[in-house]
Amino acid sequence: MVIQEIIFGKILFKLFQQSPIDNYEEKLCFVKGKGIALWDTIGKCYREGSLDANIVEEEPNNIIELTENFPSIKLIACNGGKAYETFKRNFSQGQFAGIDVIKLPSTSPIPGRYTKTFDGKVEEWKKILDYL
After folding, report:
1. How much is the CA Rg of the chain, to the nearest whole Å?
2. Is residue 86 exposed (0-12), middle (13-18) or buried (19+ Cβ within 10 Å)?
3. Rounded to whole angstroms, how far apart are CA atoms 113 and 106?
4. What's the first-to-final CA gap in the chain, in angstroms?
5. pTM for this entry
6. Biggest alpha carbon distance in the chain?
7. Do residues 7 and 118 make contact, with C-beta atoms less than 8 angstroms apart?
């Protein structure tokens, strides 16, 4: 499990009105303690540079197995457009009975076409609170 140092952690801390945590292990405990699981949609790919647009030969993670092993999952929240597009391309909603799938604004620091302000992203990410 990797917690991106970009905006993701800052958004989570803001959602839960928590002071930022610097220690990596403590961050993991914080996320787990809130009932949040982190798993990339893409399990394997080739990418030159850091732009999602450069991702090729992508293979999805086995999200079906994840949800079967952890039946308490009620929401799959995709972090940005690439994660959501990859999910939709490789899975159907029918494979995830009782689980909602939503697209949230990317926490990437690289500006995209639909970049929101930090507060705008926090507002969108509040949707996950209904599932915890």
Report:
1. 15
2. buried
3. 11
4. 19
5. 0.86
6. 40
7. yes
Give the tokens for residue 118.
Answer: 């930090």
Q: What is the pLDDT of residues 54-86, one digit of tens each?
A: 888 899 999 999 999 999 999 999 998 889 999
The single-letter DSSP state of residue 41 is: S
Task: State the Cα–Cα distance between residues 75 and 103, nearest whole angstrom.
Answer: 11
Burial class (CB in 10 A: 0-12, 13-18, 19+), 87: buried
Segment 15-38, tens digit of pLDDT: 999 999 989 899 999 999 999 998
- The DSSP letter of residue 17 is T
> Which amino acid does the sequence have at 132?
L
- Residue 98: Cβ within 10 Å count: 8
From its phi and psi, is residue 80 left (phi > 0), alpha (psi between -120 and 50) or beta? left
